[in-house]
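Following up on my earlier thread - several people asked me to post the actual chain instead of describing it. Fair enough. Here it is, all 106 residues.
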Amino acid sequence: YFARQLCRFGDIFVAILSGRSSSHRDLRSGSRASWLLGVDIRYRFFVGTSDDDELEQAEDVVVLPVRDGYATLMLKVLLMFAWALDTFSPRMILRVDDDVYVHPGR
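Reply from S.P.:
Thanks for posting it. Predicted structure:
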C-alpha cells in the first residue's frame, strides 16, 4: 500500500544505472516494454560517457559526465543521486541496475 501511495503522489524516483553497450540498450528497451509500461512513476536511465557516441535519443536517458567503467562506478552513482535530487527532489530514490525487474505496486 505504501509503495502505491508514493508512486501515485510522485514522491519516489527510480534511478536505473545502465551502460552504453548494445546489451544495455536492449535491457533499457526491455524495461520500457515491461515494468515501466503504463506505470506513472518518475524514472531515468543513467549512463556514463564513452568513445562510442551511438546512444539512442531518448528523453529517459541521462548521460553523466563520467566514463563508464568499474573504476568510476561510485562516482557515477553519486552523480546519479545528485542529478535526481537536483531535478526532482523526491522523498525517496530507488536505485536499481538495468537488469532488475521492478514491481512498482509492491
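The CA atoms of residues 47 and 63 lie 5 Å apart. That should answer part of your original question.
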